[in-house]
Amino acid sequence: MLKLMYITNRPDIAQIAESAGVDRIFVDMEFIGKDVRQKGMDTVKSHHTVEDAARIKRSVETAEVLVRVNPIHDALPDYPSSEEEIDAVVKAGADIIMLPYFKTVEEVGTFLRLVNGRAKTMLLIETPEAVERIDEILELPGIDEIHIGLNDLSIGYGRKFMFELLADGTVEQLCFKFRKKGIPFGFGGVASVGNGMLPSEYIIKEHYRLGSGCVILSRSFCDVDKVNHIGVINATFLRGVKEIRKLEKECERHSRFFYDNERELVRLVGLITKGAEE
Fold first, then answer.
1. I need a surface site. Which of 9, 127, 182, 222 has the fewest CB within 10 A?
2. What is the pLDDT of residues 91-123, one digit of tens each?
3. Nearest CA-CA partner of 78 in 34, 111, 44, 32
4. Distance CA 53, CA 55 (A)
5. What is the C-alpha separation between 99 and 67, in angstroms, rounded?
6. pLDDT at residue number 43
């Protein structure tokens, strides 16, 4: 089954997600450079803190706590360096630390050195430069997992719709390299089953076809900024996770699923991008 990840810094939401079967609570501390490159886009810009990570760690029992730190950086006037940031995140109890928006082998090497085995490491591939250097990057020891970030990677390639990268083979080529190295990986995010501009069931089936092991539950899966009733939030998580797990059982039974799904996904992405151009 896919490891499901959900972004939040609220302990009450983390507990609801965990109880519904979400495997990882995602604390998102990244903010450096993010507003500039995603300007005008309806993307999640959380700017969580180390204190949020510690609170989430105390609030969950079985879910892992994943913390996305900032890209490798020196100390800023009002923010600590990567070394200090990672040390603080480790102290807060992070199970997994994610490095975003890197472009060089050296940045990854620095990240792995700073974590130094104190937590699992996850690389977030979201720049064309990282894709170009992926073979060198994969030779570095200490990479526990990799995730492909379709939002920023599609921006980097000048694409109009992030799932074009799933339709054109870019994601598949990367997944093949990860599988050869035996490194667990995932990509992108999904809405609840039946929802999304590209319905999430097509994306989930591609996760199975490509051998992916994890996915982020998107903001639209349950937008807690728009829903204030805890009971409704709880019901949304329970129903949404149950529907995903049901679909996964079908994926495990029907291998033909994947070929048909890939072909239909390519067709739908083509229609969506054509509509965007018009």
1. 182
2. 999 999 999 999 999 999 999 999 999 999 999
3. 32
4. 5
5. 9
6. 54
Amino acid identity of 261? N
Amino acid (one-letter) located at 93: G
Listing DSSP states for 180-224 in one string gives HHT--EEEEEE-STT-TTTTHHHHHHHHHHHT--EEEEPGGG--T
- Separation between Cα atoms, residue 238 and residue 48, nearest integer Å: 25
Query: Which CATH number is 74's domain given?
Result: 3.20.20.60
pLDDT value at 41 more than 60: no
Mean of pLDDT values over 261-277? 87
Q: Which domain holds residue 158?
A: 3-277
Nearest C-alpha neighbor of 245 from the set 3, 15, 26, 18: 3
Residue 44: predicted pLDDT: 59
Q: What is the torsion angle, in degrees rounded to the nearest 10, for the CA atoms of residue 263, residue 265, residue 269 and residue 272? A: 120
pLDDT in tens, 124-166: 999 999 999 999 999 999 999 999 999 999 999 999 999 999 9
**Local confidence band at 62 (pLDDT 50, 70, 90 cut-offs):** very high
Q: What are phi and psi of 146, to 5 degrees?
A: -135, 140
| Tokens found for residue 23 | 């495997």
CB-based contacts of 104: which residues, under 8 Å, 6+ apart? Answer: 129, 133
CB atoms inside a 10 Å sphere around CB 260? 11
Tally of domains within the chain = 1
